[in-house]
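Predict the assembly for these two chains.
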Amino acid sequence: MPENASPMRAQDKLTFLLALVPFLLDHERVSVAETAEHFGVDQEQIREAVRLIAVSGVPGDTSQYLHGDLFDIAWDDFEDNDRIAITNRVAIDDSPRFSAREAAALIAGLQYLSALPENADHAAIGSLMAKLTHGASASPSQVAVAGTQTDESLRTIRAAVGSGTRVEFGYLNSRGEQERRRVDPLRIESIDDDWYLRGWCHLRRAVRTFRLDRMTELVATPEPISYRPSDVSLPDTLFEPSDDDLTVSVAVAESAIGLIVDYIPDGARRRRQGGIVHTQVRVAHYHGLKRLVCRHSGVLTVTAPPQARAIVAEWAGAGLARYGDDA
Amino acid sequence: MLSETNSPARIPVEERLFSLVLALLATETGLTKNEILSTVQGYRQRYAAGGDNSALERQFERDKDDIRELGVPLETVAPPGDTGNNQNLRYRIPKGSYDLPPDIRFSPEEMTLLSLAAAAWKEGSLSAESRRAIMKLRSLGVETDDPLVGYAPRLRAREAAFEPLSIALERKTIVTFSYLKPGETAARLRSVAPLALVQHQGRWHLQGIDQDAQEPRTFLLSRIVDAVRATTNTFEAPGGDYAARALDELERIWEGNVARVSVQPGTDAAVRLGKRYGTDRSSGTDPNEPLTVHYSDLNILADELASFGPEVLVHSPEKVRDAVTTRLRRAVADHRDEADQHEQEGRDA
């Protein structure tokens, strides 16, 4: 199950070699397949690494890399049976320590995960962080993530995902209307501070993404789900484009483009002109567009169609009117 | 950065690095640079006995940095009584500080959690580090439980400043960047000794010592408007958990800043602000009672409140109220057309 297709850089390859050797020493005659599975890489990557290890070693007393100064493997077993047995080892036998940044990345990740209901045991997370710190070659860098505050809804949905039962909740649709949704919960996702449920929506008869902080009156039902995670494919991107989406033209300050990049459809043209980028954004409905634009007031302007401009102006104007201010 | 000069006997970069690590682990007393260049696989093929090896020496310097970056404790030892002569420096990797201590082992449950922690950085700036940490963990041979099925948590460090700042943090180098303070029209160049990077309420902040003011300051990464530049100056940081302190401070600011906001019942604003961290209804039952909304940054709160349009009415403080009306006024001005009478086609709710 190769989990990252991106090619390894030399530093990654070195780390892989340093990690593979102790594993192979601990696992006599392990198969290439099993090793690939364990490390989550292609089998060919394992074979390539083993071939390199088998000819590597130290210069030795003669500085000639003589046979005894090199790793060796049982070549016949490797070539014929796709099994790996190291018959001579050199210099290393244990796993390497973590770097300060590696330990910091995992520690920050753990802090982030401590918001999950099953990690309510903060002592266990704390001891894990202490182990990582102790296993690093230098003090982990000071990178930290505040545990996000999650309410009871995450716990309820988590339990429903675990038991394979349906949930029901009130949700504002993309037009701002309140609807009762019956959903087969498939996966809980989050990006930084925002938590989402991906699930099969029985109202829409499709996979939908719901923000947890938009749900009201969430109820766990005893009904078993009719769609399982294996039945539907969950794309990597959180929001699936739909045919009903609206695409509008916008002008956005170049410095602010990162703020709306999620809304710019793939392949949309970006024309730069004096610190302003002219491009397009895709939204489910004007209801969402007017909010997006008012959030980025001053750096994001809708240029067309006129109807979209009017709706934004009306929304902002209505907001302003509440202050008795006619602008 | 790894680069390779053209050479007839081309040894892959990872083979040269692997051979260097093995050679330096195997030596008790250390090897001199010359011994390394003339004998270690990947260097020796390009070594010119008695000739000019300056390119190869530079290669060795870069390789050392790359290896150290992986957490390998590559040491430099000066022979006793002989300081100053660079040619006599010896290099080695003490096995005791290379090996993961034997008491650092992980249970399958712990491995599952660590894998998920690493996966959270999938697209973030620390993704390469997470990937390597996981390789090292897997070398321990512990089988993981099923991954936590049903979860896909992600940390994003999208700001371009994150990567250079995290490196400066590690190397303790002073950095400079242009910072746009809210309410100011021009960015100002700051010189900062970085102490910690923390994410609070979904936003990354840098905590550091402002070199001009010589005082600790907190910077929002999204307000750094140009590239972060590392200077050649380093600094000493007295020990301490700067990250925890920075988070405590942000938390104090969050608790201390309060806006009173009325929301229209049943709207998006009512649902989302009602669930916002720390939000409180002063009386508890009356839906028309204003909400008490906490914030750490006035402008970020104002952006959010402006997006709700007529669904919210800010009562206090005055500066939040002003910031919201300024945004709304600007949005009206930017979107009002001369003949403002387009037909509504009934698509709008």
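Confidence is low (pLDDT under 50) at residues 1-5 of chain A. Chain A has four domains: 10-88, 100-134, 152-224, 246-320.
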